[in-house]
Every structure is written in C-alpha cells, then in structure tokens.
Amino acid sequence: MKAIVATNQAAGTAGMKLLERPEPQAAINDVVVQIHASGFTGDELTWPSTWTDRVGRDRTPSIPGHELAGVVTALGYGTTGLSIGQRVFGLTDWYRDGTLAEYVAVEERSLTPLPGDVDFTVGAALVMPGLTAWQGLFEHGRLHAGQSVLVHGAAGAYVIGTGRAGGRQTALDFGAQEFVDLDNDALEDVGEVDLVFDVLGGDIAKRSAGVIRVGGTLVTITGPTEARPAGGLTIDFVVVPDRAQLSEVVQRVRNGRLRTNIGKVAALDDAVAAFNRTERIRGKTIIRVRP
Fold first, then answer.
1. 236: how many CB neighbours lie within 10 A of its CB?
2. What domains does the chain contain, in order, with CATH numbers?
C-alpha cells in the first residue's frame, strides 16, 4: 500500500516520504480500515510515541496521522460491534502506525460508525478537534449552560476566543461572543471567567490563571504547568478515543449545530507538499486518500 513514512525526527515534515509499505493485518480486537480521508497534527513529529513503542524501542519507519474516516475491510478475532463494509471514523493509537496510508489496523473500540450523509472528509476533520473540545470543555472542564469560557487558539456558554488578529472573524463566525487579540489586547481585560481551555501553554497559561474566578478551572493540552487558578483546579490531559463522544459530535454536525474548519484538502500523493507549504493555511488540512 501507499503510505507517508517518517524516519528522521530532526527533519520534521520535510523528511516525510511517500513509500510502499505492507498492508496491516488485524490483530485481536482490531479491524482493518480502508482509509478515505485522514488528518494529521504537525506536533506529532515531536511526540515520543511517533518514534518509539511503549517500552522505548525504536519503531521507525513510522506512519504518522491518527485521524481517519473510511470503510472496514477486515475484522480481527474478538470484534463484535462493527461489520465489513461499514463506514467509520475515529482516533488511532499513538504508538501504532497511523492513518496517512491506504489502510490502517486499529482497535475496534476506537472507531465510531459514520452516518452515510456525512462526507469522509468532514468525518476525518471532526476527530481530533471534536474529541479535544468535548473532553476539554465538558469532561474535564465540566462546562455547563450559563458559564463563561475563555478558549485559547480558537451550547449555552459565553465563549471568549483568543488568537492573532487575523483569526478574529473566524472565531466570531464559529460562535465566539468576544475575541481577544493576544498580540495587541490585554488578556486581563476580559474579566473573570469560569473556565479557561488552553491549547497554547507557556506564558499564556500563567496569565490565564489570573482571569479565572475563585474555584474555577484551567484545562490545558500543552503539558504540565505551574499555573493555578485561586481555589481552583488545573487539569492537563491527553485526548483519547471515545465512541460515544464522537457520536454526539457528528450528530451536531448533522443537525447544523457544529461545523468543521477545513483549510485544504490534498491527495495522498501530494501530502508531503501539503504539510510543507510556506504560506499559513487557516483551518485543518485533510488528506483525501481515496477520491
């Protein structure tokens, strides 16, 4: 099969290559999926799991990408919830070969049925952003109607988005009630909020702790931080597959309450070039593996 392969961590995305790799086989509790669309997070090439297995052994050449939408083509022993030919989408194991390929083997529990009226490209674009937002806001942040949330990098909540000036209109178009330009506006002027959801880290996380109400929560995906809101919690988490949560997310797409932000769609043959563009792409790049 064709696959994008990474062998050199120092080279980053420029070191990825399109090569022929063996098709994966379904282990116990696995299914094999023929990938129609795939997502990739640039930071993956800095993660230890891209380069080593769980006991620290080198696992290169590795196939990056962990977001997929496709069709089940084989079932491993012990699988019960999916069938051959079924449309699925989901998040694969960080320590296994990923989704920038024509096929992938993935644990059945990591996949969610993809409704027939949702395009594969949209399905792949939902996985990481959808799960990260759901788990950060609702599972860890325990956000509920009437509360206010400050979302960095950007259902009843009052949402304040942050980012660079060029992202203001996008944040507002996607539902933020206010926008803070982190280069020119004072973060501290937003007033007190119940929850901060941080995807930037560093000094922004530390400053954010100061705008959280007593007893509020700072949720981050950027790693451990010393930032602490007064009388509250700081939670650092890594997103995990969740069938029920993805089902909720895709249903909100179907009823118009949620939409994806896809900046570019490229073929697998053009994936390396797509990930090494010099101009900034607003939105997520999706690789369409099958037309």
1. 16
2. 2-114+261-288 (3.90.180.10), 129-236 (3.40.50.720)
Q: Note whether 195 and 219 are within 8 A (CB).
A: yes
Q: What is the pTM of this model?
A: 0.86
Q: How far is CA 191 from CA 161, 165, 194, 208, 218, in A?
A: 13, 20, 10, 11, 15
Handedness of CA 9, 13, 14, 15 (dihedral sign): positive
Q: How far apart are CA 131 and CA 32, in angstroms?
A: 22
**Chain segment 42-52, per-residue pLDDT in tens:** 889 999 999 99
Burial letters 74-108, b for 16+ CB under 10 A, else e: bbbeebeebeeebbbbbbbbbebbbbbbbbbbbbb
Pairing of strands 17-20, 262-267: unpaired
My answer on whether omega of the bond before 61 falls inside 30° of 0, hence cis, is yes
Residue 291 to residue 37: CA distance in whole angstroms = 9
What share of the chain has pLDDT > 90, as a percent?
59
Q: How far apart are CA 279 and CA 270, in angstroms?
A: 16
Residue of 107, 45, 124 lying closest to 72 (CA atoms) = 107
**pLDDT at 267 exceeding the cut of 70:** yes
Within a 10 A sphere around the Cβ of 50, how many other Cβ atoms?
A: 20
